[in-house]
Protein 1
Amino acid sequence: MSGDRTVPQRILKLESPEIQRCLIDLFRFEFDNSERRVAYNDYYDAVITKHSQTWMSPERGLEV
Amino acid sequence: MKIARLAISNFRQYQSVNFDFTDYDSDFIIISGANGNGKTNFLNALSWCLYDNENFAVKDNQNLSLVSRDTISTASDSEEIVTKVGLDLTMANGTSARVTRIAKFKKNNNVATQISPSKLSVTVLQDASKGSSSEANPELWIEQNLPKRLEPYVLFDGERLENFFKRESAKTVQAAVLEIAQVDVLRNMNSHLEIAIEKLRKAAASQDSTFAIQDASKKVEDLNSMLGSLTKEESALSKQLGDLDRNYAGIEDAIVREKTHVLDIQREKNLSEQISALEVDLSEAWAQFAEWSAKNAPAIFARRALEASLGEIEKRHQRGELPPPIKESVLVGLLEHGVCVCGSDLHGNQERHDHIENLLDKNRSLGELGAILQGMESHLTGFMSRLEGSEDTRAVLQRQIGTSRKKHSELKVEYEALRKRISESASQGKSAPLEDLQKLMDGKDRANLRIGEVKSQIEIIKSQLKTAQTEQERLLSKSDKAQAQFKKLEFAKEALKQSQLMFKELSDEVRLEVQKQLDTQFKKMIWKQNYIERVEIDDDFIVSVWDKQGFEILSTLSAGERECLAFAFSLALNGISNYELPMVIDTPFGRMSSEPRPNVARSLAESTKPGEGHETRQVILLMTDTEYDTAVKEALASRKPKILNLQFDQGNSTVKLQGA
């Protein structure tokens, strides 16, 4: 695919930095692999594991 | 992207033709040619080269060999024949690429059989200093630069464009819009996130073996499995409907061919009757003419002989070979008086006397002959006056015979051509398109009915699944053992929620932009500007056209208007994409009446000019001379089109290219 890897502005405007970083990683992964079939499970799992560690859901935040 | 060159060899009626578009100042190319001169196969050659298919072939032709007929006939038995199409592209970033597809055939018993699958290669020239490199995966290169999904927006068959928005095309429209605007990256991301979430859900549930969690998880799993089966069925049914729609186009062609075949047979019968009737008329006219000739020929012959004799006598009189016409009584009087008119004494001059006697003898015999001839002449003249009356009959008969023979000969030519066409059509195999159509419509009805059922089941299961997932998550949130996995699940769900929102916003933005451009372009092309209110693409990517009275009129648009909508859609997609795709259109105005042609032509010319934020879009129009009329010429003049002409050489059944 032609075009660029520019991440949509909306991702950069997200409030949660963890969600933002996660989506940036996933977007670039999808963009780079958009024309071929690649295994994505492990990558997704790794990205989610990495960024969820410091993340706190709004509900949980209140609970804590 | 522009098509720089196209070299076609041994492909259908192209034996060896090179199109080089780099020599021209204009990016607007017109390739003209009569029907059958290779215009559609130009499009097919492009489609075959890029995607190994021939989207624009008439159904019957799809089973024909790719190899040109002349090549097959001139090749010796067992000889290998190579079909090759080479396409040079100039990319928007300045690089160039050569795409080549080759297929090998072997001739056997006058048939060319493909001996190996076609082979694609792509060579990319970055710049002169770096040289060229062969792509290891040429199919991938095509997919990245001119994906097959975009083919419908690059290569057009004007004759079939009317189907563009006719049927269930919302998904095609959506795929094109999202693909071209690159929003589909987000869609892929969302679908992968959904799968990741389900895995996380299972992982979290596996951490805690309490009955409640396991029970809730089993419910989720079962519902997910049911949903998966139903979704698969829905997708298979959609595919089936798509296939049926594609078959519909083939059946439509078959119906047209069948109709033509039936009309041909009727015409053949009609011609045969006309020819028989003419043959009877001719035979009667010949018989009448023969009767007339038998009756009148002796008199005509005698009259001509008499006329010739009288003419001869007159000539001899004039030459002095016959005596002057002197009355017999005058000569007898001279002999009785003994004095000639010259004063000579006839009694005393025997020689003079004999001369007058001789003249008297000749005059007597000539007089007898003259009397006979005169008698005959008066008799024949009387007969001839009657004959002249019958001259009209002769002229009428001769005219009738001449006209009938000419008409007979013309009808025979048409009859023979028709018989040949009927025989060719019959040899292609008998088909029953109306039965096929009925079966297809029945199949569509069944598929639509089932798809409706499946969709409603899906909705029910989704709702049950949501409840089951909420319950499962409530239990997991309270489980200490599942905490770590549950947190990841919560995180992934939040990421998906944000991403789905983004996807919706972006696709709406793109959809509305395409809608705006489609509306503008369509109104520019359409000749009923005052009638059309707006063109819309709704949330489900269904295209609709509204008139000023507030009625949706897409289904009532004429073939020409649908064509305009398809062109406008392609131009709109180009407007929002990062691709600068060329447009190749076969028979752009074939289905249009002459009135709207200049409008559409002008709009095509103007819309593809270089503009704000985009370069010139290359346009190649393949047209018959009838399409490229004076009004269309004037409308396209602003782009200074380069005109090429395809000539079909009947002698060796090949196409030749001429710069007009």
Protein 2
Amino acid sequence: MDKFTTLTGIAAPLPLANVDTDKIIPARFLKTIKRSGLGVHLFDTLRFDAEGRERPEFVLNQEPYRKAEILIAHENFGCGSSREHAPWALLDFGIRCVIAPDFADIFNNNCYKNGILPVRLPRAVCDQLMEDARLGGNARVTVDLARQVVVRPNGEEIGFEIDAFRKHSLLNGLDDIGQTLQHAPQIDGYEARQRQEKSWMPAIAVV
Amino acid sequence: MEKAQPRTLFDKVWDAHVVERLPDGTCVLYIDRHLVHEVTSPQAFEGLRMAGRRVRRPDATIAVADHNIATSDRRAGIKEEDSRIQVETLERNVAEFGVPYFPVLDPRQGIVHIIGPEQGISLPGFTIVCGDSHTSTHGALGALAFGIGTSEVEHVLATQTLLQRPAKNLLARVEGALPPGCTAKDIVLAIIAEIGTAGGTGYVIEYAGSTIRALDMAGRMTVCNMSIEAGARAGMIAPDATTFDYVRGKPFAPKGEALERAIEYWSTLPSDPGAQYDRVVEIDATRLVPMVTWGTSPEAGLPITGVVPDPAGEPDEAKRVQLARMLDYMGLTAGQKLTDLAVDVVFIGSCTNGRIEDIRAAADIARGRHVAPGVRALVVPGSGIVKQQAEAEGLDRVLIEAGFEWREAGCSMCLGMNPDKLTPGQRCASTSNRNFEGRQGPRGRTHLLSPAMAAAAAVTGHLADVRTLV
Ligand code: SF4
């Protein structure tokens, strides 16, 4: 996983609430066995018409937002399925940070596992950032994870909250599995206790 | 010694699985059962392979293919190349890593959330995960069951744990006898319409009250299944005699004396009197009317007696725009009666409503009637075992005689990923769980409802109040 430290880039406004994972990437594009290459299908039905032509009115089809690295949206972003293809598609497109009033739970988790930073800010602040973003290419937004601030194009800093554990993992690009395996002795101990206390628990073996 | 705080069902199952608490409150949580399917696992196995890791507990893991496969005769294999590659990849991975697997032609194959409980793999008090958001289904047994992403699938395969923070407790108390024509599906659609698709975010919902107690396990699974549609990661129902009777005799459940010891433990799990919830929602079941969704969000649900809402009445501008967009997508006009909406397709199945009880409910309405002209109606059992049972009861004949298609088990038209899809503009009455844009196929239009209501739509040709047919 790539580290996330500071990001300065173009932000794209997407003033929609309840952007579900089927919108981020429809199910028909989940038939891959790889993580990469999904960016071309990001927001497929919003981006392309039935004949596969770009819809010019969609923000990511416009300059300079084709190069957006930050996405700003409304409430409950990422609701729906657990598909990690949603953050993979965002990442493959080049988006490393999503700013919204709140996020659906599983999507939120999946972002952290892929080096994407979901930033929760109140609706009024998101609306303000969208106004900034509409100024286009000159209006770059900075997201500084170490200091936990979003910096508006006019220099104003807005603080945000994040769990200490997640911040540490993102800043250092740490793999969760590696970190958990440092607790292997405790996991062994738990399993030994479970075998004793829940000896009724069956094992699965398909015959 | 200090007297222990009263705890909820969730608290108890959570506490019993904490391996370690890290300084910031994140827990290493032990996972008892891991269910794996073909769509969200290939990248996880690939990750293991690249890191030289093995599956820590193959004996706590089960794999099955369900999303991609056709529900027509499958003996000739999968036609679509990308789907076939995904299923073959799963078969290669389970062989290489020694993971138990129900092959596509095995009668035990089916939708992952149907077969877990049906086989006794999912049990009360367990932590259960799967790379699929509707894992919440298994909470009906009194388990803590939730969906995870592919990175977390890899994490569980490698460590049999997850890094998690405890959720908040939401109590949904449903009281009173269900009126005729109303089912578990109507309860959960009403709860989601009440609290909204983000109302459960950050919570685990415990469903309780006399209505829930009176539901059979199939109904409880329908309710828990759609917890995720309210934003909650999990739904739970306290295990009781109904649960224990259900578990008894299931192939992978404990037997004899071991089962008695298990039941003794499971009986300690229901929430203590005086346990605190962060939020309580009360539903009066006696006032329910069969529900149907009209929009492209599961919260857009109304009693079937209602009319399509008018966006002009919405004060918040962003919401007004969104409502108008929903009406446009769904091809509806404000004020239209829901019962006037003609359907092209009816889909009865999915992990929400693909159990034998659901097929019986549909067959009861279909018996002696016929699917309306021009309507395509599919009945898709949730598993091969459900299919066998339905055929043993003669339900397949009732349905086929009434003009329904009788299919093989799988996710089918719940999501546009296998040959069962809506074509653009088609309107579908569906017993599944999501009505998002394009969910059942590009530009398809979905109305969520119960199996009996879906069958009523099939035989009348439009959304219909099932109470007029019984
Ligand atoms: S039936 Fe639908 S919701 Fe259930 S697992 Fe399959 S695709 Fe997901």
